[in-house]
Specification:
This protein is of the alpha+beta class and 142 residues long. The protein is built from five helices and five strands; from the N terminus they run H-H-H-E-H-E-E-H-E-E.
Length: 142
């Protein structure tokens, strides 16, 4: 039961907060890579508890997809807060994808990211073109 609970809501979020948890996720991803992983967060960004789990899990899934589909390419994970929105962007410098391929049946990773975003009232966009990398943008209007 404890393992199931941890899978649903990792304790790192409660102990460190989502910013440090995302940084740890990037550091863990970087350990097995040659290409750099950049983590960029604006000073003073605070993410509400109900948003933290979704941002973390979407970041996790995006990095998993990059590893699987783009390979060892530079990645930037960015957290921004403006007066009207919170945003998580995960961008890779990989080969990119056909934007229509994201919406095909069986693409559980992108479906999962969109569903997590919808649960917190956010949008999740996949922005990509062949040869130009891929960006996952999660935006929550505040």
């Amino acid at each position: 039961m404890r393992d199931i609970s941890h899978c649903l809501h990792p304790s790192i979020l409660e102990h460190l907060g989502v910013i440090k948890a995302l940084r740890a996720l990037c550091n863990g991803y970087q350990r097995n890579r040659i290409a750099p992983v950049f983590f960029d967060v604006e000073d003073g960004v605070t993410i509400p508890t109900e948003t933290a789990s979704a941002f973390y899990r979407i970041g996790e899934e995006a990095l998993r997809n990059i590893q699987k589909h783009a390979g060892d390419v530079p990645v930037t994970v960015q957290v921004q807060a403006q007066s009207t929105y919170l945003q998580l962007r995960i961008q890779d410098e990989g080969p990119g994808i056909d934007p229509q391929a994201v919406n095909v049946a069986g693409n559980l990773g992108s479906v999962s990211m969109r569903e997590r975003a919808n649960l917190i009232g956010a949008t999740c966009k996949c922005i990509s073109c062949p040869g130009e990398g891929t960006t996952i943008q999660v935006r929550l209007i505040t």
